[in-house]
Design goal:
The chain is an alpha+beta fold and 96 residues long. It has one domain: Alpha-D-phosphohexomutase, C-terminal domain (TATA-Binding Protein, 2-Layer Sandwich). The protein contains 2 helices and 6 strands, in the order βαββββαβ. The chain has a 6-stranded antiparallel sheet, covered by helices on one side. This is DUF2218 domain-containing protein.
């Protein structure tokens, strides 16, 4: 079973933040970014990043709820820190 959640982070610079997240994590784990989308693969789950008009959509997937919560915390907290000046907010919701 796969546990999945999503967050749409409102920003007028989604490419910048998606790229910054992927590049940051690429120093230690498998992470890629190509123009408008990227993937960050942790040992405990995967985050997919996609730019949209007005925001960055993040989709987190893991094999159990504990790992999903950890993934949300790691990716979300880094994005909030990177976007502190823009006051980015991350709210995860179960994916449909």
């Amino acid at each position: 079973m796969t546990f999945t959640s999503e967050a749409l982070v409102s920003t007028d610079r989604p490419e910048r933040y998606g790229s910054q997240l992927a590049k940051h994590f690429a120093n230690k784990i498998d992470a890629t970014w190509e123009e408008t989308r990227g993937t960050i693969t942790f040992p405990f789950g995967t985050a997919e990043l996609t730019t949209e008009d007005g925001g960055l959509r993040m989709r987190a997937s893991a094999t159990d709820q504990e790992s999903l919560t950890r993934l949300e915390d790691v990716v979300g907290s880094h994005l909030v820190r990177f976007g502190q000046r823009d006051e980015l907010k991350v709210e995860w919701h179960p994916a449909r």
